[in-house]
Amino acid sequence: MSTSSNNVREGILVGCGNPLLDISANVPMNFLDRYQMKEDDAILAEDRHMPIYRELVDGYQAEFLAGGSVQNSLRIAQWILGQPRVAVFFGCVGEDDYAQRLKEKAAAAGLDVHYQVNRGQPTGTCAVLITGTHRSLCANLAAANHFTIDHLEQPANKALVDNAKYYYISGFFLTVNPPSIMHVAETAHAKQRPFLMNLSAPFISQFFMAPLMAAMPYVDIIFGNEAEAHAFATGQGWPTDDLREIGKRIVGLEKLNPSRPRIAILTQGCDPVLLIQKDSVEEFPVTRLAVHEIVDTNGAGDAFVGGFLSQFVQGKSLDVCIRCGNYAAGHIIQNPGCTYSGSPQFVE
């Protein structure tokens, strides 16, 4: 029995991110070694990684999935809501078969996508390298890297941004177009509407701290896992490894709208999710799965956010939002890639 959502209007949620076609396959450990990658990596492709994509397609039983962090989260939210076009997604693709494939997969998931098309670049791809229950991501952003703010300023797209009530952007998008992030953040702030963001990967805090900190005063809810939170703390020079303390410090960073205090939501794999608010830290237990039930941890974090958003846009309490996030993540890791099966069974 999934949560009813008949009261949610179309276009209430806007997300910006990197639309990537995931090319997912089981590979041996020496595959990672050859490309100087580690288990559970999330990296941007360099020249040495470029042969990966063709090698996966030619040499392994690769599966194509509509990917990219924000697009994943919005697809999961749509699945749980069971009502199409609640979520609007912006990102940049090429003019090629991969873009067509992405569009079809996104539309089938109920997403209302408004891709910017860059004719000079191929659609972005992400190699999802599965080794047992671990997965490593290597993203070749390609066209996704060429998103420009003028796409959001086109009248039809501007109307979609202006009419939304909730906004979600990944840290990954900081590598692409910070002006677009600031445009959405400023819109959310001007309209007194929630702006949610994700730390996304340790390398974001290592290499893109300046644009992240420029956006942070606008952020009402920040998501991250323990590795991302530790990388952020290191980047800030904070003398602590304590996740709760890191979360409190993130919550305490400068905020433009003090009437809506920032919230940090930090996941820890199978350990409890931490909900950190100004005066409190709450724990939400995660249902542990047996090893044989875990198919692929790819997309668990994206799914958590998707589950959370599906309830948040309905005005549900934070504890319901987090429980739905945990439900979604637990479902996703029992399926290959960031995919789902059957009808959602979340019960408040």
TrEMBL record:
Transmembrane segments: none
Keyword annotations from UniProtKB, A to Z: ATP-binding, Kinase, Magnesium, Nucleotide-binding, Nucleus, Purine salvage, Transferase
SUPFAM superfamilies noted in UniProt: Ribokinase-like
CDD domains: adenosine_kinase
Class in the EC hierarchy, top level: transferase
BP GO annotations: AMP salvage; purine nucleobase metabolic process; purine ribonucleoside salvage
Pathway the protein contributes to: Purine metabolism; AMP biosynthesis via salvage pathway; AMP from adenosine: step 1/1
Role of this protein: ATP dependent phosphorylation of adenosine and other related nucleoside analogs to monophosphate derivatives.
Subunit composition and interactions: Monomer.
Protein name from the UniProt record: Adenosine kinase
Lineage of source species: Eukaryota, Metazoa, Ecdysozoa, Arthropoda, Hexapoda
